[in-house]
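EI: anyone free to look at a 320-residue chain?
SC: sure, send it
EI:
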Amino acid sequence: MTQYLDFEKPLAEIEGKAEELRALARANEEMDVAEEAAALDAKAAKLLDELYGDLTPWRKCQVARHPERPHCQDYVAELFTEFTPLAGDRNFADDLAVIGGLARFDDQPVMVIGHEKGSDTKSRIERNFGMARPEGYRKAVRLMEMAGRFGLPVITLIDTAGAYPGKGAEERGQSEAIARSTEMCLKIGVPLVSVIIGEGGSGGAVAFATANRVAMLEHSVYSVISPEGCASILWKDSEKMREAAEALRLTAQDLKKLGVCDHIITEPKGGAHRDRAAAVDSVRNAIAAMLKELDGKDAAALIKDRRQKFLDIGSKGLAA
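SC: here you go
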């Protein structure tokens, strides 16, 4: 059953009525509801176009967090072959919020790293809802070092509300681990491309997304803080998250203007969760295009390109 967001309630009613008609027809083969169901489908399609034609930043946040949206594991399963997961930071533990390992992308050996939120209650708890601890970032550093040693392009898939802020994580050096991961992104001499597939939250996302090229799915978001957190700090009222989302300029469209994001990946109408196969294909094409842009560059050129990209962020689009 499709889960609907609050602004999709009118759509839920129409699609629900269409499904009820089809269920009645299945129970009674003499009933002919094809015409009525088709009319409802057309009405639903029109409403879907209207709803997603001009989403507000807050609604984009809701779509980016949709529980049925494809997660890192879904993309890894569809985009890569011969994926061999690698575990642990060789220091403390393995962090299940971060998955990574060796794989092939279009038959090219690569290293893939990403945040995994989980798909049901049990896996979400195991994955800590995609909020990585220090050992997750140290695992990523280890894998990026390995990729650099063997000349493997690194592909990162970002989907996290932010790094885990718990007491244990802070005791084990959360901020230092994030900084080391960001530093490793900047200094490895291999192509590094990132895709924001859902939420890109704060330093927890930057630690994987300090890349030569950054792409964002059309309805993903990327921000220094969540709208709720921002509203709590600025207005002492988390209910002002809509105003905060507007002010943060966290959408792919805003970030493209500012130079934070290089490519916007079109999503199926209604979001990636409505047509997973199409969303996966779009991400595949974007990754292939970004790797092609970097093909043939030596280590020094890749490092210079990456550093310059981040020095230039915000230098354009400020008046927009």
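EI: Residues 34-53 form the longest helix (20 residues).
SC: 👍
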